[in-house]
Amino acid sequence: MKPTVYVINGPNLNLLGTREPEKYGRATLADVEALCREAGDRHGLGIEFRQSNHEGDLVSWIQEAGQRGAAGIVLNAAAYTHTSVALLDAVAAVAVPVIEVHITNIHAREPFRRTSYVSQAAKGVICGLGPQGYGLAIAGLAGLAVEGS
């Protein structure tokens, strides 16, 4: 059985492709999932891909990844990045490396978006590279898994 990476997406990411395409591009969430599965295949990793507009779902999935001994988590918490102590606590509570991903460069946007609670517990952060950031995060987790072996 292949090691699994959870790819967890937060609110409004289900609208990718139609939501503010000048910021987020035209790729849909299905396109992002396909990119993640291809990256997982390249690195011998299974992908558990999920999206919810509900904070509690994201917390539960982070905990699930920890309980199942996932190889890592790619987390795009979207707007919850800037508001959720619950997500910070969940990321800090699991013994699984978490790579925070954002499609846009959150540091070049509104001042409130420049604060990330998730970053305080994440192993790394990738932002501003569009959907390709997900593939880079999966490659990074694959590298961490090899280092840990």
From TrEMBL:
The record marks 19 as: Transition state stabilizer. Keywords: Amino-acid biosynthesis, Aromatic amino acid biosynthesis, Lyase. Substrate binds at residues 76, 82, 89, 103-104, 113. GO terms for biological process: amino acid biosynthetic process; aromatic amino acid family biosynthetic process; chorismate biosynthetic process; quinate catabolic process. GO terms for molecular function: 3-dehydroquinate dehydratase activity. Homododecamer. Catalyzes a trans-dehydration via an enolate intermediate. This is 3-dehydroquinate dehydratase. It comes from Rhodoplanes roseus.
